[in-house]
Amino acid sequence: MALHRSIILLSIISLTLVIPTSSLYEPDPDQVSPTVYELLPKFGLPSGLLPDSVINYTVSEDNRFVVVLSKPCYIQFDYLVYYEKTISGQIGYGSITDLKGIQVKRFLFWFDVDEIKVDLPPSDSIYFQVGIINKKLDIDQFKTVHSCSDNGVSGSCGGSRKGFLQFKGMMDEAEMLITE
């Protein structure tokens, strides 16, 4: 009788260990992962920070993320913004830090956006850290998801990075001709 109870007890213990463990690793077919545009507001950030061309994203347990776009592109906000094909960083409530893959054009130069923050509690402002400069913008322009364009048609040389580099190269060549 004691042997019978021990076998039953061992069976119950093994079932309680196996069932919860297996449910952690098997995806629930009824549970759908949120889109990146649904995820951003859960962190207090506007969904329009990223273009409409996201094809995949991952977020690790420590909130490091990688977003993959179908291709690099541009969006015109108050400033022209360039998105690389892969964007990464660390997401927290109200902020994205250690950001890689987003640049902003100011005058003729492109600058890396290092960090994005919103006020807590939420206000009408969003802040972009570009090097040592912190730029405050109206958050309304980031509330809707925008479509990408293949080139930044803004400013001289079409606004594209390639166009600017070609223009700079031509200016360097012209300067050499003048000084010779």
Q: Overview of this structure, please?
A:
The chain has 180 residues and is α+β, with helices and mostly antiparallel strands. The protein has a domain at 36-147: at5g01610, DUF538 DOMAIN (Roll). Helices cover 28% and strands 34% of the residues. It has 3 helices and 9 strands; from the N terminus they run H-H-E-E-E-E-E-E-E-E-E-H. The protein has helices at residues 2-25, 36-42, 161-179; strands at 54-59, 64-69, 73-76, 80-92, 95-106, 109-112, 115-118, 125-130, 133-138. Strands 1, 2, 3, 4, 5, 6, 7, 8 and 9 form a 9-stranded antiparallel sheet that branches. It is globular, with a radius of gyration of 25 Å. The termini are far apart.
Question: What's the quick description here?
Answer:
The protein has a domain at 36-147: Roll (at5g01610, DUF538 DOMAIN). Helices cover 28% and strands 34% of the residues. The protein is built from 3 helices and 9 strands.
